[in-house]
Specification:
Elements lengths: L5 H6 L3 H17 L4 E5 L2 E6 L2 E8 L3 E5 L4 H6 L1 H4 L3 E3 L2 E5 L6 H26 L1
Antiparallel strand pairs: 1-2, 2-3, 3-4, 4-6, 5-6
Helix pairs in contact: 2-5
Length: 127
């Protein structure tokens, strides 16, 4: 059965991960109040202006944030992300550590600004 909502996705995760995912969801929703919440690639995603801003997912030993291929995020938050496992397009937060809520909010807002700026640039090119 396919997951159809973020609440369903979270409920289907191991109990040890659910509370962390709920906190991550709350942080993203606070940072992106106008975003559309959806499931994309079988994980929670948030969209603005029809463009995906960010995804998140739960795993056995960590939760992950996917700032949708934004190398600029890793560069902009390099110092703060140094304590976490980062690879191309993925930021992993250990379940052993407190979830960095304010950092997640700032990353989500950063991505929203990227999406908005790209939309304005693309609109000017078409005009």
């Amino acid at each position: 059965m396919a997951t159809t909502s973020v609440a369903d996705y979270i409920a289907a995760q191991p109990k040890t991960v659910q509370a962390v995912l709920r906190r991550m969801r709350t942080a993203i929703r606070k940072a992106l109040p106008g975003a559309e919440e959806t499931i994309s690639y079988k994980i929670p995603a948030y969209k603005l202006h029809g463009k995906t801003v960010i995804h998140f997912a739960g795993w056995a030993n960590h939760v992950a944030l996917y700032p949708t291929g934004s190398a600029a995020v890793v560069a902009a938050f390099k110092k703060e992300l140094s304590a976490h496992e980062v690879s191309k397009g993925t930021i992993r937060f250990s379940l052993e550590e407190p979830l960095p809520i304010k950092l997640i909010e700032r990353i989500a807002r950063f991505r929203a600004k990227e999406i908005t700026a790209k939309g304005k640039t693309n609109h000017k090119k078409r005009a």
